[in-house]
Amino acid sequence: MNLVSLGQSDLRVTPICLGTMTFGQQVAEAESHHILSRSLERGVNFIDTAEMYAVPATAETCGATETFIGNWLAKNPGARQKLVLATKVAGPSRGMPWIRAGQGMTGQDILASCEASLRRLQTDVIDLYQIHWPERNVPAFGALYFDPKKDRAGTSIHEQLQALGELVKAGKVRYIGLSNETPYGVHEFVRLAEQHGLPRVATVQNPYCLINRSLDNGLDETMHHLGVSLLAYSPLGFGLLTGKYDDTGIHGVAQPQGRMAIYESMQKQRWGRPEALAAAKRYNQLARDNGLTPAQLALAFCYTNWRVASTIIGVTSVAQLDECLDAWGTELSPELLKQIDAIRWEYRDPAQ
After folding, report:
1. In this protein, which residues make up the domain named NADP-dependent oxidoreductase (predicted)?
2. What pLDDT is attached to residue 96?
3. Which residues make Cβ contacts (< 8 Å) with residue 169, sequence separation at least 6?
4. d(CA 15, CA 244)
5. Mutual angle of helices 318-326 and 294-303, in 10-degree steps
6. What is the pLDDT of residue 174?
7. Engineering a disulfide at 21: which of 53, 191, 225, 286 sits with its beta carbon 3.0 to 4.6 angstroms away?
């Protein structure tokens, strides 16, 4: 894998990133260390985490993922200099008061969260520090429409950028990014950064997969013209695009068991919609009809897409990691891409 640049930064990363939100819930610390070591051995130099992980989020596991990674880095002192390490500061609580009190994400919240992440990760600097989701009113995590009636006073983007600028100036953060953002949000962060001489966002981490291509409807144009890179998360649609739920459904017993089958809370999210599974089944069958596994098709769709700088893969075992990495190099013919678009035209983006 050739390294790719992220936005206008000097960060050079592999086009596959190891996502870690399963560490601390589905994945015990010892196994997480095996996965981290295997990922580095296979040449992946990019790790993404967040202060609120593991997922599903609980007060007991909040910060566990960063702690696991920090302990691994301490046991492997030569690893840190080989890696681009990304983490995220959580937005408003969204029902998680253990992250912070109140509904905001002030500049002081950002500074405090960064210090805590640095301690858990046992590192002096975070290479890419991202805002996990906006404080302002946005349609995200399954909400389809912007409702201006829900707007309220809150922390300004300018204040958040100033706090991030303090962290960059102090050498605690190298570059900044966003996640679960909209075209408006990306434009505002870039505009205000350029206007006030503050750090410019390098990346946006948003969902992107066969059953959620909402990014194609405008955000891709924004990112292309502003020089901001996409980090695609959930390329396998929370497991729906592996085929494991095709026969059982998400309420059945999937082997190997996946998050959608284990955690009832996830069945109520956008990935648990009946329409999402119906669309996934169509894509999964399309893969089989063309001599591919469903996972190969779904991953190759992201791996080969011009919109995607790096695809974040989340795994629960070394075997799953190897399967995702082995899919690199899978090519999709123009005819197959047309068939993918035909299914999208029929189902649109059911996991949006």
Report:
1. 15-343
2. 84
3. none
4. 25
5. 60
6. 98
7. 53
Count of structural domains within the chain: 1
Q: Roughly how many angstroms between the first and final C-alpha of the chain, as a whole number?
A: 30
DSSP alpha helix (H) spans, 76-156:
107-121
Residue 187 included in any domain: yes
> What residues form DSSP beta bridges with 204?
178, 230
Could you list the residue range(s) of the whole structural domain that residue 9 is in?
4-347
pLDDT of residue 139: 87
Do residues 5 and 301 make contact, with C-beta atoms less than 8 angstroms apart?
Answer: no
What is the pLDDT at residue 265?
64
Asked if residue 251 belongs to a domain, the reply is: yes
pLDDT at 260: 61
pLDDT of residue 264: 63
CA–CA distance, 5 with 15 (Å, rounded to integer): 9
Q: What are 219's strand-pairing partners? A: none
Q: Where are the alpha helices (DSSP H) in the chain?
A: 29-41, 64-75, 107-121, 157-169, 183-196, 219-226, 259-262, 264-267, 274-289, 294-303, 318-326, 334-347
**What pTM was computed for the model?**
0.95
Let me know: does 46 contact 14? Beta carbons within 8 Å: yes
Annotation says 53 is catalytic: yes
CA-based nearest residue to 61, from 36, 32, 103: 32
Token pair listed for 342: 């035909």
Torsion from C-alpha of 271, 273, 278, 283, nearest 10 degrees = -20
Beta carbons of 314 and 20 less than 8 angstroms apart:
yes
Q: For residue 267, is it within any domain? A: yes
């950002």: which residue's tokens?
Answer: 110
- The Cα–Cα gap between 168 and 225 comes to 24
Question: Nearest 10 degrees: CA dihedral of 61, 66, 68, 72?
Answer: 180
CATH number for the domain harbouring residue 293: 3.20.20.100
* Residues lower than pLDDT 50 in the chain: none
Cα torsion at 170, 173, 179, 184 (round to 10°)? 40
CA distance 329 to 12: 20
Catalytic hit among 53, 129, 175, 283: 53
Tell whether 352 is covered by a domain: no
Listed residue (86, 89, 85) closest to 114, CA to CA: 89
Element (H, E) at 310: strand 308-314
